[in-house]
Design the sequence.
């Protein structure tokens, strides 16, 4: 019985999963099988996007027959000729003899090697940038050689903005009803399987993957349909960034993988001691693997993930321990680089495995080898604990987590801020001030915003008392006078609205600006929280209005375009001069007090800077 899945109005998933398979490509252990993905586009012309492995062939043809609903199959697009995607191609041609096979020239040669049917009379050859119109859907083809076979290509449907990516963006694991990645737990279920798939299937061909990503860079991709694993319609940017890291051999995280090959447990003991010493020195991400227990494919994936690797091996038959040698050959074959690598060796009479392991990995360029190595003869002795500790020290020195961060109070200035006149009222007393922190929290029928207001200013007191406020969004038409009026004096002893004519009252009775502002918002407080220097008010919008189409003024725009340039100040004293960047007030002193408050604009320590003499 058919079991298809509708992905869009006219795109169907007709692939299947194999949970009985335990070794992928008779090499890579699988704990939950794998999916063989195939897709069907139902347009003026029908198109099958790849076939499947013969293990699921019977159900596949039931799915295909159902989605065709008696129509002719016009095209089958062969993105990749590996048998897990093309083993049923011969049976497809037998069942649908009129079908045209869309492929490239390299694919034709492989079809002739795998099958005996006449490909030349059925082929529709495509090359880089060629298009195939199905109706409203139009496929554009991009060649992707060695991702991970030489004939591989991908296609992009410009109508539905879908990328059919062949083995790229694939993932191990059978599908269980949910076909879309966003229906699964990406971090716990998919990320590790996707990494293991990439590193073992495509990992050797980083340069070719980068080339493909560059081709796809300008495309607007809303869905990725790979030949293995789930369909991606969300978090696509996240997945592409993962591919960029993997393809450039960039560590995803700082941490240490310790892989050991131990015969009687003594090399394992040394690996455990090193892991403890690294932990004692503050390293959080440590992964310890026995190469005789954990499959090399899984350790390889972890080596792609982390920045530092330690290989600890017994010397075996004057060489490297067998399972360790297998892992190193795998890492070398996949060209893993940009890692910091160290070695521990063990041998009762001739420990030489460290030198041999290093020689194997030196064939791959771009890795950094720690000079310090640890040599054990049979078992770890007290005298060697120092050596292991020193190796831990050398590894930690090359990591960034422990390095002190230079104090810098300017980073928050790179956050994006607007500028607003916050107005409030108590009885007959109107007040206004300048704030820069307003956030919309929710949209829809009920809009919620938050504002942060300095606890020392009069507006904070009024809003706590009345529970209402207005915001005027300052535009780039605002002049410096409006900032001086509302930002440099206190409303407790000044009438900020005296002789200020360009205001009106909203329905809540508060003022809002009708010029130098592009919009206003009236809000009612529903909650508040104390955060030391500021109160954060959560409020519901009760009225809003757009006043003009002028661009909003930002914090950066204020400093660059509105605030007058600081005038040179003659300093006749030997003391240092500190200027308030908000209003220009000058403070003289050998050191700027950390609790300073500008007497003019009331801003604090973070808004002063040292004036050069």
Sequence:
């Amino acid at each position: 019985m058919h079991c298809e899945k509708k992905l869009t109005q006219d795109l169907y998933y007709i692939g299947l999963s194999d949970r009985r398979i335990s070794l992928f490509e008779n090499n890579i252990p699988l704990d939950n099988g794998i999916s063989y993905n195939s897709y069907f586009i139902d347009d003026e012309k029908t198109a099958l996007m790849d076939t499947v492995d013969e293990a699921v062939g019977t159900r596949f043809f039931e799915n295909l027959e159902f989605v065709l609903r008696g129509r002719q199959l016009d095209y089958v697009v062969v993105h990749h000729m590996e048998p897990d995607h093309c083993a049923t191609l011969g049976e497809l041609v037998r069942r649908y003899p009129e079908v045209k096979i869309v492929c490239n020239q390299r694919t034709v040669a492989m079809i002739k090697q795998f099958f005996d049917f006449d490909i030349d009379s059925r082929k529709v050859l495509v090359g880089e940038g060629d298009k195939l119109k199905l109706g409203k859907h139009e496929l554009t083809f991009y060649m992707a050689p060695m991702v991970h076979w030489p004939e591989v290509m991908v296609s992009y449907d410009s109508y539905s903005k879908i990328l059919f990516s062949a083995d790229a963006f694939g993932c191990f694991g059978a599908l269980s009803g949910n076909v879309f990645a966003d229906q699964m737990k990406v971090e716990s279920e998919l990320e590790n399987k996707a990494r293991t798939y990439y590193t073992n299937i495509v990992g050797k061909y980083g340069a070719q993957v980068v080339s493909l990503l560059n081709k796809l860079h300008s495309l607007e991709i809303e869905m990725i349909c790979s030949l293995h694993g789930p369909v991606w319609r969300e978090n696509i940017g996240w997945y592409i960034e993962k591919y960029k890291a993997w393809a450039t051999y960039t560590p995803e995280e700082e941490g240490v993988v310790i892989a050991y090959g131990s015969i009687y447990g003594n090399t394992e003991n040394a690996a455990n001691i090193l892991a403890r010493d690294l932990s004692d020195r503050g390293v959080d991400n440590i992964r310890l693997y026995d190469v005789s227990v954990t499959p090399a494919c899984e350790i390889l994936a972890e080596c792609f993930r982390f920045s530092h690797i330690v290989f600890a091996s017994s010397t075996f038959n004057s060489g490297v321990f067998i399972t360790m040698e297998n892992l190193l050959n795998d890492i070398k074959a996949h060209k893993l680089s940009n890692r910091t690598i160290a070695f521990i060796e063990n041998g009762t009479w001739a420990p030489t495995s460290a030198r041999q392991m290093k020689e194997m990995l030196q064939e791959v360029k771009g890795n950094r080898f720690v000079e310090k190595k640890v040599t054990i003869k049979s078992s770890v002795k007290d005298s060697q604990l120092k050596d292991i500790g020193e190796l831990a020290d050398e590894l930690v020195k090359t990591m960034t987590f422990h390095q002190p961060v230079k104090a810098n109070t300017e980073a928050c200035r790179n956050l994006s801020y607007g500028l607003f006149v916050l107005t409030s009222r108590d009885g007959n007393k109107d007040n206004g001030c300048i704030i820069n922190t307003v956030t919309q929290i929710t949209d829809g029928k009920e809009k919620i915003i938050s504002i942060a207001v300095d606890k020392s200013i009069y507006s904070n007191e009024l809003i706590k008392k009345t529970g209402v406020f207005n915001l005027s969004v300052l535009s780039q038409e605002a002049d410096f006078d409006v900032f001086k009026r509302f930002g440099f004096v206190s409303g407790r002893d000044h009438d900020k609205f005296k002789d200020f004519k360009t205001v009106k009252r909203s329905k809540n009775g508060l003022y809002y600006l009708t010029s130098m502002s592009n919009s206003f918002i009236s809000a009612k407080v529903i909650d508040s929280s104390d955060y030391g220097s500021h109160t954060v008010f959560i409020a519901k919008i009760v009225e809003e209005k757009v006043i003009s189409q002028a661009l909003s003024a930002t914090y950066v725009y204020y400093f660059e375009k509105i605030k007058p340039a600081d005038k040179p100040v003659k300093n006749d004293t030997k003391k240092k001069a500190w200027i308030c960047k908000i209003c220009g007030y000058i403070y003289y002193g050998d050191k700027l007090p950390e609790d300073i408050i500008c007497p003019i604009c009331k801003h604090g320590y973070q808004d002063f800077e040292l004036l050069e003499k």
